[in-house]
């Protein structure tokens, strides 16, 4: 169910100039980065790119959701990591993205880790926002 504007607790604000070959900054100045297309796409690769920024946000958000689920389940997340791989490719409408989320949870067995990851995918705001729009693979 979508949230209502009255339910918003925080709003991040970022402004881009120059698109994929320019700059992105947040209104509070905490993030101010040069963006360039990666070398794999013919760019200079001198800066970051939208896919890296999305991967960073998704992995951090998913790790947070994993923490919520682990606390509910009494699971130990000590030393855990979440990695998001965001691929950009051509599709019928131009370009699209695909995501792979992998988690390393060393203090739990494989079955428990899989269950935690699947439950985190249900509650993670990024997962909710992308559900049905892009392919997300859980590893």
From TrEMBL:
Signal sequence segment: none
SUPFAM superfamilies: OsmC-like
InterPro entries per record: KH_dom-like_a/b, OHR, OsmC/Ohr_fam, OsmC/Ohrsf
Organism domain of life: Bacteria
Record-stated family: Belongs to the OsmC/Ohr family.
Name of the featured protein: Organic hydroperoxide resistance protein
Organism this protein belongs to: Streptomyces lomondensis
């Amino acid at each position: 169910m979508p949230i209502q504007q009255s339910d918003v607790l925080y709003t991040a604000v970022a402004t881009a100039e120059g698109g994929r070959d320019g700059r992105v900054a947040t209104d509070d100045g905490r993030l101010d980065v040069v963006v360039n297309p990666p070398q794999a796409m013919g760019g200079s690769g001198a800066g970051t790119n939208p896919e890296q920024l999305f991967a960073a946000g998704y992995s951090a958000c998913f790790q947070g959701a994993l923490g919520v689920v682990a606390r509910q389940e009494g699971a130990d997340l000590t030393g855990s990591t979440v990695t998001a791989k965001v691929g950009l490719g051509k599709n019928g409408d131009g370009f699209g993205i695909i995501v792979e989320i992998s988690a390393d949870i060393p203090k739990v067995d494989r079955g428990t880790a899989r269950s935690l990851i699947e439950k985190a995918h249900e509650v993670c705001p990024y997962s909710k926002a992308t559900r049905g729009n892009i392919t997300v693979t859980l590893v």
